[in-house]
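FAQ

Q: What does a record look like?
A: Structure on top, sequence underneath. For example:
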């Protein structure tokens, strides 16, 4: 009898927790979107420029990902198509870094500052991020025209 009572109690206690894990009501599109977002974040964290920023500035990979993503999103919305193409070819996982909802709407430096603030970074750190990203791009063979455009954009 005790075993039956213990089993019944365990089922009652665990039922709500198990119900919370029921994914049957999640649509295939929603599940695919969540998986895609998770994969994008994982790929972005593996980016060499994210790793450089995280180690050089002693910040978390999430903060580095958001900060560099914000700067690169601003670049994508501001540069001409030739420089956008060049930038995309130099940054592995560029889409992963710039495709999240917050970052896809960045159009100006105020938006970049807001993105930095959203992950606990002081917006003044933009001046520390920019040289690391520019050095990385230079080491990847970025043209002087692209480096000059980014330098003036990220000031």
């Amino acid at each position: 009898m005790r075993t039956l009572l213990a089993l019944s109690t365990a089922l009652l206690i665990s039922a709500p927790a198990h119900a919370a894990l029921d994914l049957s009501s999640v649509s295939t599109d929603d599940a695919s979107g969540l998986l895609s977002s998770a994969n994008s974040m994982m790929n972005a964290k593996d980016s060499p420029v994210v790793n450089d920023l995280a180690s050089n500035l002693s910040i978390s990979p999430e903060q580095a990902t958001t900060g560099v993503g914000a700067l690169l999103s601003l670049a994508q919305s501001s540069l001409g198509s030739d420089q956008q193409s060049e930038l995309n070819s130099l940054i592995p996982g560029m889409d992963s870094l710039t495709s999240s909802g917050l970052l896809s709407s960045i159009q100006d430096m105020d938006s970049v500052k807001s993105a930095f603030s959203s992950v606990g970074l002081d917006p003044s750190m933009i001046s520390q991020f920019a040289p690391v990203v520019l050095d990385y791009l230079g080491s990847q063979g970025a043209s002087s025209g692209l480096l000059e455009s980014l330098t003036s954009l990220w000031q």
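Q: Is there anything notable about this one?
A: The longest helix spans residues 2-20.
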